[in-house]
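[job 0412] stage=fold_complex status=start
inputs:
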Amino acid sequence: MAGFADLNLPAGPDKKGLQSLLEAAARLGYSAVALNHVIDFKEKKQEIVKPASPSELFPSLPIVQGTSKRIKVLNRLTLIVSDPSHCNLLRSTSANIRLYDIIAVFPKTEKLFHIACTTLDVDLVCINVTEKLPFYFRRPPVNVAIDRGIYFELLYTPAIKDSTMRRYTISNAISLMQICKGKNIVMSSAAERPLELRGPYDVANLGLLFGMSESEAKAAVSTNCRATLLHGETRKSACGVVYTVKKPRKVEEEETTLPACKKAKTQA
Amino acid sequence: MRMSVPLRRLRQAPRHLLVCEKSHARHARSRHAAHVRDHAYNCRVSFLIPECGTLPEVLKSTIADVGEYYLLRNLSLHELVTHEFIDTFVKKGSCHALTYNTKIDQDNTAALLPTGKLILSVDKDTYEELGLQGRPSQYSGKKVMRYIITIDLMDPSFHPDSKKHKRVLWALKEKKPLEFDFLLAWCNTGAEGSTLMSYFPKNQIQTLKPKITFSTLRDLQCPVLQSNELQGKPEESCSTEELFEWLGAVLNQVSFCYFDEPKLAHWLTLTVHGFADSPVSWRESEHGFHKGGENLYNFVVFRNLDYWLQMAVGTNDDCPP
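[job 0412] stage=fold_complex status=done
writing structure:
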């Protein structure tokens, strides 16, 4: 199994609040968290800003409880799309998008859910847990998403806050489970305060309520999160196999150098 | 209706196993010593003696004699594979080592058994980078995320010039250096030589003694047990499962109400808990952590030297021997 990860901690402007969230997550045993920057297209024109690197935001990262390693902090971008034109942002080669480790999309209609599962280049598809689903899940797009390595995200903090949302969370999650059979699920918090965070084993137990098996539920907080991160990393490489690294040179111009083995081939 | 599927799973607890056997301490085929020897890594030993106000002297002196153990910080794994270490500690006496502050279901873990086998439990990325041969973990499922590598340090073909040794040293030193904090214990068989304290630099190693606590529980009602009745007799004596549950509650200081009247007891229990994050439980059976990492055994010894041995394991564990 991989280390536990919480892929949705809302990144607000409050640095102190974020620091206390990080410390709570580290104390609970999470080895990695992702700070979520949300873009909602319904509001007035929003731009994708460059995410601050974790080392700038947090001078010292807390140590994960029970180990001697520090917690890993990643950047994530979530796009709330309610219109097909909003997806154009993903297709554009905006430089700032490449700075995020994980890209997620929150589709609001059935057509957009289909587009997100089949064509969009994202890592996570968020499932609405705060209101009744406006559409039913269909097997074909969900299966295509599973084949492409896209994961479905379920949040658990709304269920803690309100009992009506608790009902919607459970019913939406169960209807998703009936289609995807527990595969490719990631559970995360979207916690704004440290009190709303729950330990990874508790979240895995919540997965049992949704209908996952013991191993699927534990994977939803560990192995599947790791797979999502790797999926995000492949976006920065060619076919997921070749990485390019900018090597600083004494000459003014910047060049990208290919890994040694590829160079040898072209020389031969 | 489809809704029943998730509810059915809720009624099932994660898999756990309790094995009970009874025997006599002086019996020729009694395996009590073998059981204790085979369970290499133990983090807690508890005694429960009913009807006993003060601790007997014999027990007090035995407990006081318990040896020390060592905490080594930032030890590179390849140091345990060097022939100097093997000849000084592994071959002379029994050396136990276990990584400290590592979780068996999340991180890489290493353990050195007294038999000379080094067990590495590594995650998928580390295994692929390390380049040593291992087998997938039994509790991994379809997508293997954990691998177990076993290196036999006492193997005659593991001498300093062999290819095997060179490969292992290269993998652990250069290919993927691994560093851990270790808990070490060494039982010298009497031969002269350096000790662990003198082998490792002073700032790295720390000597520790186990913490001992005594507590007297008053007004605790103890179950009646009959040594030849493992299943218990209704109204007369308790079964092993009931005793196990009661013992768990007592050792965790849970307040409960099991019996109506106090009854005299003629037995005592010795419970030994294994580490939750150890890669092995008994001998070399793989141990994993699903929602709990229990691997413990409990001796119930009666006045006539009959004993019951209960061995309990959690979800990701083999059946105890």
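[job 0412] summary: Chain B touches chain A through 22 residues (CB under 8 Å).
[job 0412] exit 0
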